[in-house]
Amino acid sequence: MTVWLLGDQLHPDVAPLGSADHVLLVEAHAFAERRPYHPQKLTLVFSAMRHFRDELRDRGYDVTYLEADTFGDALDRYFEANPGDDLVGVQSPSHGADARRRELVTDRGGALTLVENDLFLTSRATFDEWAGEDTGSGTFRQEGWYRHVRRETGILMDGDDPVGGEWNYDDQNRETPPPEWTPPSVPRFEPDATTREVQAFVADRYEDHWGASEEFVWPVTRAAALQARDHFVSVRLPEFGTYQDAMRDGEWALSHSLLSAALNLGLLRAREVVDPVVAAYESGDAPLNSVEGFVRQVIGWREFMRHVYRRAMPELASANQLDQTASLPSLYWDGETEMRCLSEAVGHVHDRGYAHHIERLMVLSNFALLYGVDPAELNEWFHLGFVDAYHWVTTPNVVGMGSFGSDVLSSKPYAASANYVDKMSDHCGRCPYAKTKTTGENACPFNSLYWDFLKRNEETLRGTGRMGLMYSHVDRKGDAEWRDIRERADEVREQAANGTL
User: What does the domain layout of the chain look like in residue ranges?
Assistant: First the structure.
């Protein structure tokens, strides 16, 4: 049996690899010319695929590894050598991918059977049974799903009750570290000969792409991914929960797991990262707020995003309920801004292809939301810039949550002023903009944009879930104050558009 695996299905035990005698892998290159994908993202995918190929061969598999511009070009060569072959593959989480693969195979005289993707914790049928085939409102809420998965799997459960008596310890995940705190070390995986070869290929073929190619530290093998997991559990997990939402000047990783890229490549299964984390709590080596916070990210949010994307596509990709049309400011590409929080976050993405979830949501997405960026354009930037980004990952997170382009998974926009950034970081103390000022010279851009955003979208947002407090403040402002806010917001937009913010 020939098994065709994709570049995000690189697990040694992925179904149906156990009964395969032949494996097909296709390293397609032309897709990466459509967008200026981060060099580290391309290096990660291509190197992980090549290492997986070599590991399969070491285990005795007969592997056909084809490098080509497109899947179609590779399949032309494959079926010329193997006419009429029947392939077995694993379902992809990306919208339209499975239909396209079937079409490519059948057009060349073969057949493709697809089986459930067992790299995720939950199946499509499980989510559909929970949500119902037709939700009526077309909306989904993560907290109910998260509790359902906990009950079904027994993860962090004490009988019918959650361990510790609470389902969610988010209120214990919002501390900022004291100045004397030093983040734990970041695991480094130095590029071997295979990765260096890929780096050279990427630098040559995609020389004009965005992002730094140096300092590549991501795991590209199963063994390295397991080492990264074990390092997180033993070194980084204990303080992860407390400082989960924090941002600090000059720090790109803090105590975060840095496992999302390995998970999304299939080097690790969801259960393989959750079980050791839970075991650390049970042995007394990690506090519950850290363990529950991580479990919620993996079996709650990640699984939820995958299923909501599947159910809400293709409409979700183009959703824009606030009718935002502005282009992404140049600062997202060059990092040239006096706003300390934005320059830090953009710098992290440029240098590492990574920023943690609060930087993604409450800095990068928040500014774009308040500024009025087209959700699809912001989604494009996230997709090409992050090493862990795939369309199924970014679309619900960026279009649905970060841009509030749809209410399919969130009842309110995640809009915030400088107050939030100051509470969760030390950026404001090093920023020339005044966090306490909304209007006038050197007022923080977040403040005027925030109030202007609420006013501009009042018809849509007033009365939306949990927006009452925000609009009670809107109602207290007089005409003169609103004129000053609009004037400052217009000035901020002009500066951002001109690259002078």
Answer: 2-115, 124-312, 331-498
